[in-house]
Amino acid sequence: MDWDFDVFAFAEATSMHPLVVGGVFLFQRMAVLDKVCVPKDRLANYLLAIERGYVASNPFHNALHASDVMFTTHYFLQAPLLRDLTGPLDKFAAVLAAAVHDFAHPGLSNAFLVNTRSPDAIIYNDQSVLEMFHISGAFRVMHTVPGCDITEFMSRAHYRQFRETMISMVLSTDLKVHFEHLSRLKTRVATDAYASADRKDVLLLLGQALHTSDISNPTKSNPLMMAWTQRVMAEFWLQGDRERSLGMPISAYMDRRHPAVSQCQMGFINVIVKPLFVEWRKLLGGIVQPAIDCLASSLQMWEMEGNARAVGWEGLGATCAESPSVQLRHTLSIR
């Protein structure tokens, strides 16, 4: 798969089943199913249940995003370092973790759920609420929906490792732990720790593979980057609408009346995305270079926008959720 794989076109080509078709394809290509004792029909059943569990009305956090992250995670697994440090079970768990990492996402942030005292925030004690919810729900489907138990034929030891990897990876997508994990990654890069990696190092690497994939939208080509930006801003503003209706302070960049798109994206790139991808490039080598090149292009584009107002963005919302067509990239203009 190329770095610039077009998941929008793939979704249309698969009759809107990118997660099921894409997931089965990737696992067959990886030749891991027999090695991890997972029947293909069980896998397809499970992926279909997961795909259906994503909220289609979410502009961003839906099955299309999950599919994009799944393909991107698989791309990173081709790097020699990750390829050599992981066996079939970890490779299987890694791609599956990407597929389920935002399962049943409500389209709202952790902060919103905590501040509104949502039932999930109460259940998970305000700690990584969404991430706990996603991975717990994914395992619940696995063990309660008929025909979906992909772990039935795994040994106990393999199941424990599989579950450990899945949980660790999904919890690593919480932005709250971004800087802590980035610091650990930098230390290991500086000391060449992966020359003799232990289990904790492998889990950190796999977690960062998923996290890096999850925030990779600005590192794709401009047309794809714009499509994802439109979607994430639409979802932000829907939350802002709810916050306004509840009399809550509107979260940063979530007020559609003040669509500071350029500032939002430049901050995200400079503070979160770029520092991680720079370290990721040091670790994985040339396989990350296309992402670095696209990121520079994205940053240049947003810097050119400066403080200009995003024309046509204020009404963005349901349109993004209704059609994943790549034509969406060209529906809005910014100046």
Automatic annotation (TrEMBL):
Zn(2+) 1 binds at H65, H101, D102, D214. AMP binds at H61, N62, A63, L64, H65, D102, D214, Q265. PANTHER family: CYCLIC NUCLEOTIDE PHOSPHODIESTERASE. GO terms for biological process: signal transduction. The active site is at H61 (proton donor). It comes from Haptolina ericina. Zn(2+) 2 binds at D102. Keywords: Hydrolase, Metal-binding. The lineage of its organism: Eukaryota, Haptista, Haptophyta, Prymnesiophyceae, Prymnesiales. This is PDEase domain-containing protein. Gene3D superfamilies: 3'5'-cyclic nucleotide phosphodiesterase, catalytic domain (1.10.1300.10).
